[in-house]
What we know:
Elements: E1 7-16, E2 19-25, E3 28-29, E4 34-38, H1 45-52, E5 60-65, E6 68-69, H2 75-79, E7 82-85, H3 97-102, H4 117-129, H5 145-158, E8 163-167, H6 175-192, E9 195-199, H7 203-209, E10 212-217, E11 220-225, H8 227-230, H9 233-239, E12 245-248, E13 253-256, E14 265-268, H10 275-284, E15 288-294, H11 300-306, E16 309-313, H12 321-334, E17 337-338, H13 349-361, E18 364-365, H14 367-375
Parallel strand pairs: 4-9, 4-10, 7-8, 8-9, 14-15, 14-17, 15-16, 17-18
Antiparallel strand pairs: 1-2, 1-3, 1-5, 5-6, 10-11, 12-13
Helix pairs in contact: 4-5, 10-14, 12-13
Amino acid sequence: MSDTYYVSTEQLSVGYNGKPLIEHISIGVRRGEILTLIGPNGSGKSTILKSMIRELRLIAGTVVLDGSDMAALKEREIAKKLAIVMTERIKGELMSCRDVAATGRYPYTGRLGLLTKEDRAIVDAAIETVHAQDFADRPFNETSDGQRQRILLARAICQQPEVIVLDEPTSFLDVKHKLELLDILKNMVRTRNVAVIVSLHELDLAEKVSDRVVCVANNRIDRCDVPENVFRDDYITALYGVEKGSFNALFGTVELKKVQGEPQVFVIGGGGSGVPVYRALQRAGIPFAAGVLQENDLDYPVANALASELIAVPAFAAIDAGSEARADALMRRVGRAVCPLDRFGETNAANRRLFETAKALGILTDPAALAKEAKS
């Protein structure tokens, strides 16, 4: 990857009606790289992108495209290097999806916008790239949100750009189409050496697809770094001002706030088996205790976020007698237990003993019955 930014900003100041919203913006993206903007709603992500592409007038600073000040470039020159996919829904009356995609060739056509055989081949290839062949000739206004987004991406690809700017491209898409769109972008970055600048709300996707992440909050660029240094529990919680829950950097997920109060159920979990039980209890407003979990167990992050009490031991450590005794005492105090585990081994023999104790005391509840109760 080249060290030279293909698109960069120099001391950019952006806002509306001459009033700055964010100042001193100096960021850049290289070819073969995905740069992602994240941050709370209203923090200015879209404002930055719209200012970079000249949709909004700059208050101060410079946007550099391939070594040239964009302010000095003509629209056609920019369109041959930079393509845009924004959240605004375009109206394509009387246009097929193929027609909409073909508008991406206008920077290369004459005044009449007539497509050559080569242009049509490029359009066909772009439609194939986004897997839209099945509905390419359907009226654009009769397609789903996911299909429209793919066509708009095909239009951008038809420009044969060096950089693509996308503002929240996954906002209207279901999980399947979110993954498909990001896979297409990642493939273009890898095979065509395209630079991508994108804003995303989905932190789990941003963590997985980005090469670098720009964090926007409190009217400033708070951080620009690699995902590994950005997606940390404490940082994301502070960036978004999370108060009613928590962010789990390991899985890129959020958890709701734990239910307060004395635990009413003790969950003997592990290996991911407890996670659906923890969440079912949280949804039902039932405080619970959990244990004994190693801190590297799949259950641990969710239990730590949702359980009112948790018995845990360090990662890779054996469950010691003291932790087992505390869990036994807690389970007896709660007076009700559930064990979603279906097998035990040497490392969780203590949990097997807890299970046997709960069964002997007659306080063991079937997970299915608990889930039914939680829904009622």
